[in-house]
UniProtKB/TrEMBL annotation:
GO biological process: protein refolding
Span of domain PPIase FKBP-type: 6-81
Primary localisation category: cytoplasm
Alphabetical list of InterPro entries matching this protein: PPIase_dom_sf (IPR046357), PPIase_FKBP_dom (IPR001179)
Keywords: Chaperone, Cytoplasm, Isomerase, Rotamase
Protein's name in the database: Peptidyl-prolyl cis-trans isomerase
Family note: Belongs to the FKBP-type PPIase family.
Amino acid sequence: MIAENNKVVSFHYTVTGEDGETVDSSRVRAEPLSILLGHGNIIPGLEKALQGKSAGDKFETEVACDEAYGPRNQEAQQRVPKKYFAGAQKLKVGDVTVLSLKQGGQRMVTVVKVGMTTIDVDLNHPLAGQNLKFDVEVVGVRDAEEVELQHRHAHGAGGHEHA
């Protein structure tokens, strides 16, 4: 079966940044990543690279920052009260942490400055502005189930329940 929109594609990957360091790898986990292709569940450049592939295909692809996490916005900094961070007392400059948003949800941020009651953060994704290199092995391609199409993402072997 060929990977195309509305198919569930399972794959292992290793991603390296511009410095050649491994950023993330599914190979350290037992299961490959499974996504519903064509629904924006992964960065656009990798989603495009998976199109047309089949189980057993292995390939490398470079994804430009515009097709990954976008360019860095030098003005994307914000001063945030410490109460919005878990473990705020332990944070230091350069740490990547999760910011709890007032309206619900979370966002990855990088600590720029730590004050007495506030923390200045860089709101850019830590990989923003970087071209990324992916080493990919497609493990499987299957038809999506109707519920996956409705939910716009792949479900695991045991299904998926929404709150």
